[in-house]
């Protein structure tokens, strides 16, 4: 069944494993994602979620396994040739560049004309509510603003795939919710395909069109939301019982 | 990628160690005439002279240098600790730091020639007290700048928590601040010790050649073309910092972040 | 409740060890250079300043010192950057992490003495070349100390300052999470050259700039190395100032003070440049 789907799927990950010495970080992880969908991966810290994303981005090599993007094997490509953008927990804005230049970074790398850079940065900044911050230095921004700049920097190069590694975990509750809404809006507008990693159950349900769960390096993808909710180890039932028994 | 090739590492080690090796060799040498690469003979005589006290007051110079450096290091650290606390919480912190930076970055020898008149008038030229005072003019601002970074928010919060738990200032100083600052203070002491130990220009101008520290001796031996004794005093000069570097890099590298 | 007397001790300390020496020293130098005080005081005159500018070697000395400082700082920045970026792990642990800092154990006078013995006509290098048959007399070896290309001074400065710069760049790399930023740049499409030119180099230079200026100031005032390894003309600022002050010709002394005042003003300006924009202490 899985083989039939491979050809049509936007992103296919086949049997990825990763070992550090004797420690098995990822154990035969496989995953399929359709164009324009967001898949949330829930898991506790240290379960191997970040490693999976880094392997997809090309920042770390897998011990075994294969990654297909639009049917093409990218497993051996360098990170800068994959066009896949990885967003860390920390926004990691370049401290020596202004907000404008941070967003424009990918375009500068691709040697876009000054006019194109100007118009695209302004367009995106408008969309992300950053017009007034463009000339500021990263350290002058709030946490939420910084994360939006990191989004802008990623989106401007139209990446075929976006990898989000708990990007909202360092934000306060209110900013976090507004960023989740912003992300949904952006994802719809730009038809982005995303792997979203989180340890927050609610965020996982809010963000994902499809949901997966990771534990001790093993990845389980659920066919439906109900299946995810009914699985005891995901913790959803426990959470529901708590609220119902209040 | 960030590890470099072993051969490059080898050349870096050679570049850094050759001077120490050559100086050590010269201090054990006799008859190093051109074109000999190695001296005609090796001798422990210069070092024996030093240890038995027969060598142009080198032993005395070493003790004088040690005394001055220890005194300057200790006093600068103690005074700098108090002063840095005041500056750290001052609303014009940046201005005060600027004032502290200025004497520290000025060329000591130029500073010394400008101050010589006042040292002469105060009877502080050509004696130990004068040299110590002059060196404190560089070492004290340094220790103040260095220790300002100790007084960060975490330390302030510790002090606040301790006070709300009922500790008085003396208790806080003894049980909170001193233990927390121990490594800072030790590093600062060794840094100031080395500022004084390395100092030449200021000492030569204010000391009038009468306070003969080791650095003064090196120059004197170079002037007399006595390279063996110059090398011996050089070795004595680099010995304490090398030992510090070996036992605790932090004291020398001072990573004042 | 805080009493005003709490502040007295630190105020006095700062006054006694920093403010007063500065005001007295520079004030006296200024007054002396204008003929207001001193053995030759004849009332206000700009004669000594004019003389220092015209024939006293002031301008050439400043240009020469600035040139030497810039060359040393550039070489050390280049070497330090290269080592910090290419040998990061070796410099953090293992044998190299000790040896690279060995030059920091050398006082300037010892560094100068070593290079005098190493690079002079009859020095260590000359003897090694003789052994290899490349030179046949001491005089045939090109003098690399007190030479017109300042090779001795520059090598000595490079030797003593390189470890400081390695340390500086390593700490910037660590503090700024360069590894994470590099990964981001790569996923945004930057190749290794682009990462270097657009991220690593500008970031390190920007973050190190205040410290680089500070070291420029230190080099500008360095004394022992140019005194032993420098040529007789032009001289660096420190060497020239001290020589003028020690002259038997009394007319030279006010000129020496004029040079000292001008030097202090330049240092003050540079210090303002170095400390102002960062609003934080440099890595001293």
Strand content of chain B: under 5%
Distance between the termini of chain A: 44 Å
Residues in β-strands, percent of chain A: 15-25%
Question: Which oligomeric state applies?
Answer: heterotrimer
Largest sheet of chain A: 6 strands, mixed
The number of helical elements of chain B comes to 12
Give the strand tally of chain A: 10
SSE order of chain A, as H and E?
HEEEHEEHEHHHEHEHEEHH
The proportion of residues forming helix of chain B, as a percent range, comes to: over 70%
User: Could you state the order of secondary-structure elements of chain B as H and E?
Assistant: HEEHHHHHHHHHHH
Q: How far do the termini of chain B sit from each other?
A: 27 Å
The helix-and-strand class of chain B reads mainly alpha
The number of helical elements of chain A comes to: 10
Largest sheet of chain B: 2 strands, antiparallel
Structure in words:
The complex is a heterotrimer of chains A (246), B (257) and C (284). Helix content of chain A is 39%, strand content 23%. Chain A contains ten helices and ten strands. In chain A, the strands form two sheets. Chain A has a six-stranded mixed beta sheet with strand order 6-7-8-3-9-10, sandwiched between helices. Chain A has a four-stranded antiparallel beta sheet with strand order 2-1-4-5, with helices on one face. The longest helix of chain A has 18 residues, at 173-190. Chain A is globular. By secondary structure, chain B is an all-alpha fold. Chain B is 75% helix and 2% strand. Chain B contains twelve helices and two strands, in the order αββααααααααααα. Chain B has helices at 6-27, 45-52, 58-88, 93-105, 108-121, 128-148, 153-164, 169-198, 201-207, 214-223, 227-247, 249-253, and strands spanning 29-30, 41-42. In chain B, strands 1-2 form a two-stranded antiparallel ribbon. Chain C is mainly alpha-helical and 284 residues long. Helices cover 69% and strands 0% of the residues of chain C. Chain C has helices at 8-33, 47-54, 58-86, 88-92, 96-99, 108-119, 124-131, 151-175, 178-187, 192-220, 224-229, 237-245, 252-275. In chain C, α3 runs antiparallel to α10. The two termini of chain C are 35 Å apart. The relative contact order of chain C is 0.14. The mean pLDDT of chain C is 88. The interface between B and C is large, with 85 and 86 residues.
